[in-house]
Design brief:
The structure holds 2 protein chains of 2 kinds. Chain A is mainly alpha-helical. In chain A, strands 1-3-2 form a 3-stranded mixed β-sheet. A two-stranded antiparallel ribbon of chain A has the order 4-5. Chain A is about 65% helix and about 5% strand. Chain A has a domain at about 385-415 and about 435-490. By secondary structure, chain B is of the alpha+beta class. Chain B has a single domain, classed as Distorted Sandwich (Deoxyuridine 5'-Triphosphate Nucleotidohydrolase, Chain A). Chain B is built from 4 helices and 13 strands. In chain B, strands 2, 3, 5, 7, 8, 9, 11 and 13 form an 8-stranded antiparallel β-sheet that branches. Classes of the chains: A mainly alpha, B alpha+beta. The interface of A and B includes residues 36, 382, 471, 472 and 475 of A.
Chain lengths: ~500, ~160
């Protein structure tokens, strides 16, 4: 009897832990039931529910097949298996619940869908990627993927049918951003860097990642050189590991900037300049990340190639001059980096970056940002006039430019402005017109901070409106099927 | 008062300083003398049973606490529905952001078709010259059955006037 009681107690404990998890999942499902925008969260909760239900079923099946007390060894093994299943599921589900405990707030909302669209364009499974945006600790942007993969693998290990179901779900990634800067859409351009990781993780038929394919030829070439010959295999491995980590970050900077626009460079500059390590020649963080000055230095060089392709030489000279002057001022404040990068790693990374640059357009495809020249004057002018730069009125003109009122009923009124144009132009305009602040008196700083918050809010609202318009165009058919327009016109006259 | 054509001309001429953004369907929205405005995605719903006996502005602390307890912020995507039950009150805002130049003023009104259903759309109706922002709508269902509102639906309208010095 004593043995049977002990078994019962173990199984009870395990089942209770799983029931508690189930309750947590149910709680989150209720809490987020009206947040239709949290697609990734709903998906993850469904997957976790499946995993817990599967564990409960397995536990009960194992319990039914529990060998009699006379076969104590087999009985012990089964009990240990039951405990292991409960512990593994509890740990894995618990970790994943943490990702959704705090959803992104309303101030991040206007850009959440825009970045999710970019993620879908970049990832392996087109249109099968969902992003969970998670407010996180200060100063940190980070991407975690394979949320379901590890869970599915663990289930597969014990032959569960649910594993295949999890595998067939869309890829789920968690993107962390600094919670304290939730509202700062200008700084959130750095999300572009994190999304670029998705592109570099794409695998070819042999299972090699794109990042490895880009860097390995350069490493092989370095390995045949004099510097590598005098090194042990182990030391060469260390050099490669570090070069690979650094290359990943530098490549993501490059792709991120092509994806979200040149203001990425100033966003990274502003973000990094606040860190104590910015001016330090070395720091622990540079073991996994290249020195920030190097990152900015390379981006600055890349901008020299990028700006002409974005139309710097075509029209709107004054605006472009302002953009250029912001970039020049930013570049001038980057600390010297050439002496801070070890030669071996630098050589390998530079080879990889050459390969990346030659393939960047095909890697990014339609995710690349190209509308700066088209939108620069429009967004700048609207901001100057106190208007939200969210839409491009098709027949917008000026009475001083030969009349107005070309619009005819039945023709298109306007198009939404690319959200990246709103943030890029807004960012450059802000920096080009507000750079005297550091010389202001102390009491002016608070006012300056408030001014910036208000300005960022205007940009955020503009992005929100342009996204609404884009969505309205996209959903036109669905809105009609909801009978929205005829409901209005028929029922309301 | 500006006619619809005059409003369209003013909106397409960037030197006037007038903007109503975005106009999702200008054909529908620009009327003979007005522009229809749509329901935006943010609403503050006031619960019917709050436990509060009164909102007394003289008791500032209690007033704020009670108001906060009674009001719930919600945000809904384009095209989604919101039920406004009989007697229920909600604060909403227009989808469109308005920039009104110093030479114009406006008046925001509910659309009469909603009024006939029992939806009162009271707004701070005068839109002053130089106004920038969305227009706040105070919605009350005074009918006896729920009214379903859709985010993005045309709910109010604005008429514009020239201001003379």
């Amino acid at each position: 009897m004593e043995g049977a009681d002990a078994v019962e107690a173990v199984v009870d404990r395990c089942l209770s832990r799983l029931f508690a998890l189930e309750e947590d999942i149910g709680g989150y499902r209720r809490e987020f039931s009206e947040r239709e925008d949290l697609l990734g969260t709903h998906l993850l909760l469904r997957a976790l529910h499946l995993a817990v239900a599967d564990a409960q079923r397995t536990l009960i099946e194992e319990l039914r097949a529990l060998p009699p007390p006379s076969e104590s060894r087999r009985r012990d093994l089964t009990l240990r298996l039951i405990q292991r299943i409960a512990s593994t599921v509890e740990r894995m589900v618990g970790q994943r619940l943490d990702f959704i405990a705090q959803p992104h707030g309303r101030e991040f909302d206007p850009i959440a869908d825009a970045y999710t669209r970019l993620a879908r364009t970049l990832a392996d499974e087109t249109d099968e990627t969902e992003v969970i945006f998670r407010p996180s600790e200060p100063s940190r942007y980070a991407l975690s993927s394979s949320l379901l993969d590890a869970l599915a693998e663990s289930l597969r290990g014990r032959g569960s049918r649910v594993a295949n179901e999890l595998k067939s779900m869309p890829t789920l990634v968690v993107l962390r951003y600094p919670a304290a800067d939730e509202a700062n859409v200008m700084q959130h351009l750095l999300v572009g860097h994190e999304l670029a990781h998705l592109a570099l993780r794409r695998r070819d038929g042999d299972g090699r990642t794109l990042s490895a394919r880009l860097l390995e030829p350069s490493y092989d070439s370095w390995k045949r050189g004099e510097a590598a010959e005098n090194m042990s295999e182990e030391d060469r491995g260390h050099v490669f590991d570090r070069a690979y980590n650094w290359f990943l970050e530098l490549a993501c900077d490059h792709l991120g900037m092509l994806m979200v626009g040149p203001a990425f460079f100033v966003a990274l500059g502003e973000h990094s300049a606040l860190r104590p390590s910015f001016h330090a020649p070395s720091s622990d963080e540079y073991k996994t990340h290249p020195h920030t000055a190097w990152r900015l230095g390379l981006l600055g060089q890349a901008l020299e190639e990028l700006l002409p392709t974005l139309g710097e030489d075509e029209g709107d000279g004054d605006r472009w001059s302002s953009v250029r002057s912001v970039i020049e001022a930013s570049r001038a404040s980057i600390p010297a980096w050439e002496d801070r990068v070890p030669d071996n790693e630098r050589k390998i990374v530079e080879g990889g970056m050459d390969a990346l640059r030659s393939q960047a357009h095909s890697i990014l495809g339609t995710a690349r940002y190209t509308n700066l020249a088209r939108d620069l004057g429009l967004v700048w002018d609207k901001l100057d006039s106190g208007m939200v730069p969210a839409e491009r009125v098709c027949d917008r003109t000026s009475s001083t430019e030969g009349g107005s009122g070309h619009w005819q009923r039945g023709t298109r009124w306007s198009d939404p402005v690319d959200w990246r144009s709103i943030i890029n132009v807004g960012y450059f305009r802000w920096l080009s017109t507000n750079r005297t602040w550091p010389e202001a008196r102390l009491e002016d700083w608070r006012a300056a901070d408030n001014e910036r918050r208000k300005y960022v809010a205007l940009l955020r609202g503009s992005v929100e409106l342009s996204e609404f318009q884009r969505e309205a165009h996209e959903l036109a058919e669905q809105l009609l099927s909801l009978d929205l327009r005829s409901r209005e016109s028929n029922a309301l006259g | 008062m500006l006619s619809g054509d005059a409003i369209a001309r003013a909106l397409t001429d960037h030197t006037t300083g007038l903007a109503i953004t975005p106009l999702l369907d200008a054909d529908q929205q620009i009327g003979a003398t007005s522009v229809d405005l749509r329901l935006g995605p943010d609403l503050i719903l006031t619960s019917r049973a709050t436990g509060a006996t009164s909102f007394d502005p003289a008791d500032a602390e209690e007033f704020l606490a009670r108001r906060e307890a009674a009001q719930q912020y919600i945000r809904r995507p384009l095209g989604s529905s919101i039920y406004l039950h009989p007697g229920e009150f909600a604060i909403a805002r227009t989808l469109e952001f308005l920039t009104v130049p110093s030479t114009m003023s406006g008046e925001a009104l509910g659309r009469s078709s909603w009024g006939r259903l029992g939806l009162i759309i009271a707004t701070a109706t005068l839109v002053e010259p130089g106004f920038r922002g969305t227009i706040t709508l105070e919605l009350t269902n005074v009918a006896t059955v729920p009214i379903v509102l859709y985010v993005g639906m045309r709910i109010a309208q604005i008429v514009l006037f020239r201001v003379e010095a």
